[in-house]
Amino acid sequence: MVDKEKRVRIILFKDPFQRGELTRHHAGLVKWMRAQKPQTLPGINGVICTLPSSISDEEILSTGGVKAVEENFKISLVPWAPVKFKNLWSKYEQIIPWGVQYIGSHLCWQETKGQGVRVAVIDSGIDGNHPNLGDNLKGGVNFVNPGASFADDNGHGTHVAGIIAASDTGTGIIGVAPEAELFAVKVLDKWGEGTVQGAINAIDWCLRNGIHVVNMSFGTDKYSRALEEAVRVAHNRGLLIVAAAGNDGGPDTVDYPAVFDQTISVAAVDQRGRLASYSSSGPEVDLLAPGSNILSTYRWGSFVRQSGSSMATAHISGAVALLKAKYPKEDIHRLRRRLISGARRPKFLAEKGTGAGIARVDLSL
Q1: Nearest alpha carbon to residue 144 among 152, 155, 135
Q2: By CB distance 3.0 to 4.6 Å, which of 65, 179, 297, 317 could disulfide with 113?
Q3: Which of these, 221, 203, 223, lies nearest to 213 by C-alpha position?
Q4: From 167, 281, 310, 364, the catalytic residue
Q5: b or e along 83-115 (b: 16 or more beta carbons within 10 Å of the residue's beta carbon)?
Q6: DSSP code for 299
Q7: What is the pTM assigned to this prediction?
Q8: CATH class for the region spanning 2-72
């Protein structure tokens, strides 16, 4: 593994330091480690650096000033479940996708369309040239190749963005919150892969840019204390984070960061309202939402159907945007309780590992 060969490590210090500026004490520790290319990780009192093989993680922890040392783990988009039929839908018609209707979004639009709510899609980017996304896409950033475009070279982020907030143009599709503001925070490359460092920097960017809701349709099976710390800090500062449970297809298989208590963890249901066969489930799951055969935006101005807990997560991010616009003074705790209170549990839905049930945002208003 490249990370082990290069000995790239994320180091979390016990004592805080100012953004971008190590204290003399922290700088001394970094020098003692003979760390190369140290970069601060804002918000979590950490650095990422390359260490010589002559110093072990245990030695670093023994200094007393360090609380955690870990690899810069890989993250990846939650894999899409296969769709077995060909999409014959015309982009010149307008459709309210089944998932948008299933959670009652369209029943909310006379009162709220998510106007003014800033939603960050931490993913593979967004196609800003798509006719259903251009109006609502307000900006973004690229942490895969800093300074480059945040355009989507994979397709996953564009699909997720359309579910959340595809605008009502009279053609194409309509998202859950068609007047929410989208921000593309690119942390995944064209293969759908990224790192914990990218995710941490993305969360910090959201905090500094007035984001209200964060959609995380990526995951890893590796626990990262650094990522947990970033999520905890963001939550404490009022950021509402929605995360995909995963597509591992069994109980007790929820991925990080959806495992963390500070996220709204989302698993997927199919068109019958049953837990999707591919969806992860477990005690960490908070809500269920539509994830199967979801029609949404894609690269090059097109539309495709895809399945996965990523799609379910996007429905919940859009639902939160609807509630935030309707109740702008409510904090994230009240919004979360409001959202969960509207969930419904069909009699055939197993109680174990499925949270509060299937979201119904119209019943949460």
Answers
A1: 152
A2: 179
A3: 203
A4: 310
A5: beeeeeeeeeeebbbebbebbbbbebbeebbbe
A6: G
A7: 0.95
A8: alpha beta
Give backbone dihedrals phi and psi of 154, rounded to 5 degrees, phi first: -120, -50
Query: What own/partner pairs with CB < 8 Å and gap ≥ 24 does 264-268 have?
Result: 264/240, 264/316, 264/320, 264/336, 264/339, 265/355, 266/242, 266/309, 266/312, 266/313, 266/315, 266/316, 267/291, 267/309, 267/312, 267/353, 267/354, 267/355, 268/292, 268/307, 268/308, 268/309, 268/311, 268/312
Q: Where are the domains of the chain?
A: 2-72, 76-363
- Structure tokens, 187: 């942390």
- Choose the catalytic residue: 105, 124, 130, 156: 156
Cα-based torsion angle of the residue sequence 174, 179, 181, 184 in order, rounded to the nearest 10 degrees: 10
Out of 105, 123, 279, 292, pick the active-site residue.
Answer: 123
Distance CA 22, CA 310 (A): 37
Partners of 141 in the beta sheet? 185
CATH of domain 76-363: 3.40.50.200
Calpha distance 162→297 (Å, rounded): 5
Is 341 noted as a catalytic residue in this protein?
Answer: no
Q: How many CB atoms are closer than 10 A to CB 236?
A: 10
> Taking Cα atoms as reference points, which of 273, 272, 282, 280 lies closest to residue 309?
280
Asked about 123 being catalytic, the answer comes back as yes
Q: Which residues pair with 204 in a beta bridge?
A: none
Per-block mean pLDDT, blocks of 10 residues, the chain (365 long) = 67 88 89 92 93 93 94 88 52 87 99 99 98 98 97 97 97 97 99 98 98 97 98 98 96 97 98 96 98 95 94 99 99 98 93 96 98
> Is-same-fold flag (2-72; 76-363)?
no
Q: Sign of torsion, CA 98 99 100 105?
A: positive
N-term to C-term CA, the chain: 49
Contacts of 92 (CB under 8 A, 6+ apart): 171
Q: Of 279, 262, 352, 363, nearest to 313 (Cα)? A: 279
